[in-house]
Design brief:
Length: 203
């Protein structure tokens, strides 16, 4: 989801200014008090008079977001589907490399993507599963298979001792790519998106 705002929040007797974050898995707030509301615990979200009212397992929290309150409530009630978060459009040419997730492949097929299990020339999107550190070395060569405005999504297991977020971002930078987005792929995997810098797209 990726929304962020500075606001005043209150829950119970606590009131504080701070920063609210709305991510795929949770709504959080950091100020004089800290609040973390897992998405699965949210029972309802409503915008009233510029305030976001969130009912969850622990009670109710109110965030003074002004005109943005309605958009936050809508995002909470209707989170984007996985393929929408990943930018998969009908007819997109998608290369799926080492991704052992039949349900994801099925979703791609249902979306109308042109799917291949090897790197295909002119790919709009390449999904690369990172199982070992050596897989990071593929980021450089795979650029040759991308459309100029295409993207490579790396998929790494959460908590992998050898493949960390910092390591993946460093490998992308070393390959001459720009990291532009991080997304929740599943309960077990995180996805990072890389694109070719605009300065090189005409080369």
């Amino acid at each position: 989801m990726g929304l962020e705002a500075r606001c005043t929040a209150r829950t119970g007797e606590e009131v504080s200014e701070g920063r609210a974050h709305l991510e795929t898995d949770e709504l959080s707030f950091r100020g004089a008090f800290r609040l973390r509301i897992p998405r699965r615990e949210i029972r309802g979200a409503e915008a009233r008079d510029g305030a976001l009212h969130v009912t969850y397992a622990g009670g109710t929290a109110v965030f003074e977001l002004g005109a943005a309150a309605a958009a936050w409530a809508e995002k909470i009630r209707n989170p984007p589907a996985l393929l929408d978060k990943l930018g998969v459009r009908p007819g997109a040419r998608v290369s799926l490399l080492g991704v052992a997730d039949p349900s994801f492949a099925a979703q791609l097929g249902a979306r109308g993507a042109e799917l291949t299990l090897e790197a295909a020339a002119g790919s709009d999107l390449i999904f690369l599963a990172l199982e070992t550190p050596a897989d990071l070395d593929r980021l450089g060569p795979l650029q040759a298979f991308l459309k100029p405005d295409g993207a490579i999504w790396t998929l790494r297991r959460k908590g992998h001792p050898q493949i960390t977020e910092a390591g993946v971002l460093a490998a992308g930078k070393a390959a001459g790519l720009v990291d532009v987005k991080v997304a929740r792929f599943s309960d077990t995997h995180t996805a990072e998106k890389f694109v070719i810098p605009k300065s090189r797209r005409g080369a």
